[in-house]
Amino acid sequence: MAKTKVNDINRNIYDIKNKDEYDFKIQKGLTPEIIEEISKQKNDPDWMREFRLKALEVYNKLELPTWGPDISELNMDEIATYVRPKTKLNTSWDDVPEDIKNTFDKLGIPEAEKTSLAGVGAQYDSEVVYHSMKEELIKQGVVYTDMETAVREYPDLVKEHFMKCVPVTDHKFVALHGAVWSGGSFVYVPKGVKVDIPLQSYFRLNSPESGQFEHTLIIVDEGASLHFIEGCSAPKYNKVNLHAGCVELYVKENAYLRYSTIENWSKNMLNLNTKKAIVERNAQIDWVTGSFGSKISMLYPMSILNGEGAKTEYTGISFAGAGQNLDTGFKVIHNAQNTSSVVNSKSISKNGGKCTYRSLVRINENAKNSKSSVSCESLMLDDISVSDTIPVNDIRNDEVEFSHEAKIGKISDKAIFYLMSRGLSEEDAKAMIVRGFAYPISKELPVEYAVEMNNLINLELEGAIG
Q1: How far apart are CA 59 and CA 56, in angstroms?
Q2: Confidence (pLDDT) at 448
Q3: Which pLDDT score is estimated for 466?
Q4: Ranges of each domain in the chain
Q5: Which of 52, 171, 237, 348 has the largest count of CB atoms under 10 Å?
C-alpha cells in the first residue's frame, strides 16, 4: 500500500543539532543564588532583579497544577534555566555565527524575512541573536526589539505592563518564568498606525537539559493594528527539555491584533506556555494556533474582554501522535456589555496520542448582550488514541447568546471507500480527509505558514515526526 508522499519538508530540518557550545550556561537547579547570577549576567536593573527574586519566592510556595497531564517527571534540579550562545545581538544576518545561521537558514527564517515579513527576531537558546525591522516602520514610530533592550530603553512602558496581564501568582510555571525569563520580543505600535506586513519572532532551543523562557510583550495602541507571528522548534534529545514562555498582549481601544503561532517542539519537550490578552473598548484580538510536537503541552490562550464591544476569535488545531499528551484550549472572560467571542478548536490523534480540549467561557453579570460561540471537533485516526473535551461555561446573566458544540469521531469508512474508488490509495485518502479537517485552521495562516502546517500534518501521518 502506497504511503502518503511528503515532498516539501523533512523532519530532519527541525532535528538539526548543533554542538552544545555556549558562552555561558548557568548551573542546573533553581536557587536564589542562581537567580542572582542570571540577573547579573543579564545586567538587570535593580527593579528587575528584585522582581525575579520575589517570583522565585512565589514559585516555591505554589504547588504543581492538579489538573492536566502528569508532569511529575520534570525535575528542575536537572534543568539549566539560562544558556547564552556564543554571539551578541546582531542586526545583520551576515554577522550571526555560521552554525547558528545555518540552522535558521535551513528553517527558512531569512527567506521569509525577504519575501513576506516587516521585521524578524530570532532567538537561540536563551538570547535573541538577530533582530531587524523595515525602515518605514521605524519612521512610523513602531518599536520592535528584544525584551532586554526594551527593559533598558523603554523602562516606563515595560514597568507599566510587565507581568501585569499575567501575574506571577497565576500558577507555578508563571512564577518560574518570572524568576528566570530571558529573551523574547517587545512590540509597541503607536496610535493609529497600521502595520500591514507581519512581524515574526522565531524561538529555537538547541541545548539539551535546558529550558527556554522567552517573554513576549505587545502593546497595540488605540486605533492601531498588527499581525504578529511566532514560530518555535527544537531538536529531539533523550532527556526532558522545558519551555515555559509567557505572552502578554494589550489591545487598546479600537485596535486590532492577530497572533499566529506554529509550535513544533520535539517530543522530549514539556511545553508549559502561558498567553493572555487584555482587550479594550471596540478592540479585537484573533488567535490562530497550531500545536505539533512536544511530549506534553499545557497551553490555553486567554482573552479578557474589558471594554464594551471588545471581540475575540480563537482558531486552533493540535495533532498528537504516539507518546504525546496535548492538553490545549482557550479561555475568555467577558467583562463588559456587547462583547463577543468565537472559538473554533480542532484536534487530531493517532497511534495512542491523547488530545484534550480544556476551555473556560465566563460571561459576567455586567456583560449583558454579549455573544459567545464554541465549537470543538476531534478526529481519532485509530482505536487506541484518546480525545477528551472538558469545557467550563460560566454564564452569569440571562441577556446573552451562547452556544457550544462538540463532536468526536473517526474517519468515515464510506469517505475512504469513495476516495479509493476514485484512484487514491487508502493512506492518501486518509491524508486528504485530515487536511480537509484542518483546512479551517490553515486558511487563517499566511500562505507560507499554512504550507508548513500542512507539511507537518503529512509528517505526522507518516509517523515521521519526532
Answers
A1: 5
A2: 62
A3: 36
A4: 11-299
A5: 348
